[in-house]
Design goal:
homodimer; 333 residues; alpha+beta; 60s Ribosomal Protein L30, Chain: A; Phosphoribosyl-aminoimidazole Synthetase, Chain A, domain 2; 2 domains; 6-stranded mixed sheet; 10 helices; 12 strands
Chain lengths: 333, 333
């Protein structure tokens, strides 16, 4: 679709209702969505009489940059991080709703890309986008709410870690932070650098390793969104325990090699970088870890998180509103 | 709490985690919230195995102005309009989640006011705020997702109106638009003008008249958010019918008197103004309307919405992205 002057139309030219129709055209809702978009509210199934719900807001220039990522990437990332939150409760995603704000002169193709990315990632986890809202704002703002089915089991909170548990992780650590570092240098990436950039643009939470359904379950679980030390700090605080990590278990040779070419310390990415949306949990010592999980530390009596028994003195994670106004696009959600 | 230089602290000074703790301190979750804030996701009850869900985004300068409304007003309005969407499906609100973006130099008291207003309105409908997200953005953005319990009954959609049904409304029409008009003049309001301004700042959806629980139910239902003609147009389209309204039934003497002092036509407010979040539905002709409802028209064969059989040639409602960039704060959600 091309506007009268030959350029792609903007959302102002197309209008809210036509844009909503365009976004929803040809979509197939998942089986959990009993009533999809188009009315005052959607209706979603909650088979066991409860649902898990998580919400996240992403702001252009703060959580993503449209000169670094395609709209499709941003749409996938927005859904992925919310899906990871739902999985991190031991729940399986059922549906998402999306509120989107954008300037009136936003090209429609940006919205098309965002929506396509959201749908692609939602379908990867067996879910769909059941509804949303579309408004005018000064910057692009994406607000996602994700729903999950606990399958009749209790939620896996951050509070269940106990001394003697094994701390284990599924998924990559530090690659998103590495990708951000590569993007910040402005150099054209190749090899592991290109892989890191791709993983910064679109995280790959290890959905297949999430403890949903009937398999073994950890006693505490979260996803790594703020940074490994920060997120394990939340588990340690909520559980009233200490966590000690093994530096050797966290070593990632490819990341170390990449860091060496940039003259930085890969441990900072692994321990402080968020946004990979790996899963990290506290597992009973007796049973073997399920496929995709690897031990990286132990739960002990006490408080706080250490590495080989020592405090880590680098930055431990991310917090909104702290830090410099500069370097936009570097804040994980 | 006062900052080091004697001024109230900003969200930057307090920090994300302290602010979240402050927002949630002392709150009592409703009975439907099985797990509240503080983990990767909340858990909300869905007693009949389904939930209704609606999401809305409000942007500062576009949907509200902090020089016209207090943060408490904005918080109440944001929850009220989402609660109205849930009631408009025939569901009773159970919980809300809130994603909030704001600049780092936002005074903490603004966030305190927003949160207090949200909680106050959520508690008015028997619900609570089960979780949220807090991020940095250039303008204040509030994104609310509301959940509702259908009580084992089918949702009341926009598609069930049939020729012969009575169109009836519960709640006020045009008062929010009148209040906006008064605010725009800049004159200090009194009498009905002051009442209209108050209703623009905080709508009062007629929650008590909503058809939830075991009483009589309309065949189609929506809330008036975009404007009466626009919202009835959605019912007419979805149901494949025509709707004819009675001008005399829509007459509001107090509003007419207020409009006369401003040399405008009150019908424009009643027919085109949104944001009052009245409920409008199509009811069977046989039974008397329940308390709080009044007949304003009839459903007929055909298409479109008319007033006394004629098209209305004024503006019929609101649409994002259309219209002037000027006059911020005038766009209903």
């Amino acid at each position: 679709m091309i506007g009268e002057d030959g350029t792609p139309p903007t959302v102002r030219e197309l209008g809210e209702f036509a844009l909503i129709e365009r976004i929803n055209a040809g979509r197939r809702q998942g089986p959990q969505v009993l009533l999809g978009p188009g009315d005052d509210a959607a209706v979603v199934a909650a088979p066991d009489g409860r649902f898990a719900v998580s919400t996240d807001m992403l702001v252009e220039g703060r959580h993503f940059r449209l000169d670094w990522s395609t709209p499709h990437d941003v749409g996938r990332k927005a859904i992925a991080q919310n899906a990871a939150d739902v999985f991190a409760m031991g729940a399986r995603p059922t549906a998402f709703v999306v509120a989107l704000g954008c300037p009136a002169d936003t090209p429609v193709e940006v919205i098309d890309g965002l929506a396509a990315g959201m749908w692609a990632e939602a379908e990867r986890v067996g879910a769909s986008v059941a509804g949303g809202d579309l408004v005018r704002s000064r910057e692009v703002v994406v607000s996602i709410t994700a729903f999950g089915d606990l399958g009749g089991l209790p939620p896996i909170t951050r509070a269940g870690a106990r001394p003697g548990h094994v701390v284990a992780v599924a998924g990559r650590l530090g690659w998103s932070a590495a990708g951000l570092a590569v993007l910040t240098t402005g150099a054209a990436p190749d090899g592991p650098g290109a892989e890191a950039v791709a993983l910064h643009r679109v995280p790959h939470p290890p959905y297949e390793a999430a403890p949903v359904g009937g398999g073994p379950r950890p006693h505490a679980l979260t996803d790594v969104s703020d940074g490994l030390l920060a997120d394990l700090g939340h588990i340690a605080d909520a559980s009233g325990v200490a966590i000690d990590l093994s530096a050797s278990a966290l070593r990632d040779d490819a990341l170390t090699a990449l860091a060496a070419t940039m003259n930085v310390d890969a441990r900072q990415w692994v321990l402080g970088g968020g946004e990979d949306h790996a899963f990290v949990g506290a597992w009973a010592r007796e049973a073997p870890l399920p496929p995709g999980w690897r031990a990286i530390g132990t739960v002990r009596a006490g408080s706080g998180v250490t590495v080989d028994g020592m405090s880590w003195d680098g930055a431990v994670g991310w917090e909104s509103f702290r830090g410099a106004e500069a370097a936009p696009g570097n804040e994980p959600r």
